[in-house]
Amino acid sequence: MTADGRLRRESVRMQAAELFEQGIKPLEVARRLRVSGKSAYQWQSLWREGGPSALASRGPSGSRCRLSPRCLEKLAAYLDQGPAAHGWVEDQVWTAARVDTLIGRKFHVSYSVSGATRLMHRLGFSPQVPARRVAERDEQAVTAWKEATWEEVKEPGRPAGATSTSRTRQASPIGRPKDAPGAGAA
């Protein structure tokens, strides 16, 4: 969630606290603030137990980053150096899997591939998906094969009249006027 999103949620909860202090019921609070009734009831319960401060944000949810701010700076510097500087010479693409491996090598911390993706986004990088092309691919030969051979080897599709729009049975022409669309097909 973005900082703006957290601030909005905080503001909405504080508005809910004000409405509860005025004696307004949770469902009306939910309607006014455009939140679910479940949220309004949970907020009311927290508000009764601890007042408005109980509805204050406790910070971002989720697990804490396993890398210190200093390590994050080092990771950003490593990413700026490029993949070749760290042993990936095939292409100059940072994938989430490569970043995960780099984090393990440099910091001895294990991340999942999705966690490495989130960490890259946090640092201002985006993981790339490498193109899966064979280095020896001959584009002219591929084009020539498609033009000359493909039409001969591809299997023909189903004939147009062999299918029906019904999932259970073929369409029945019985009882259909002779001039109706599709009446002559059967």
Any overview of this molecule?
- Helix content is 48%, strand content 0%.
- It is an all-alpha fold and 186 residues long.
- It has 8 helices and no strands.
- The protein is flat, with a radius of gyration of 31 Å.
Characteristics:
186 residues, mainly alpha, flat
Shape, principal axes of CA atoms: flat
The largest pleated sheet is described as: none
Q: Count every beta strand, where a strand is a DSSP E run of 2 or more residues.
A: 0
Order of helices and strands: HHHHHHHH
Q: What's the overall average pLDDT, rounded?
A: 81
- What class do helices, strands and sheet pairing give? mainly alpha
Helical coverage, percent range? 40-55%
Element layout with pairings:
Layout lengths: L2 H19 L4 H8 L3 H14 L18 H13 L14 H12 L5 H10 L16 H10 L1 H4 L33
What is the compact description of this entry?
The protein is an all-alpha fold and 186 residues long. It contains eight helices and no strands. It is 48% helix and 0% strand.
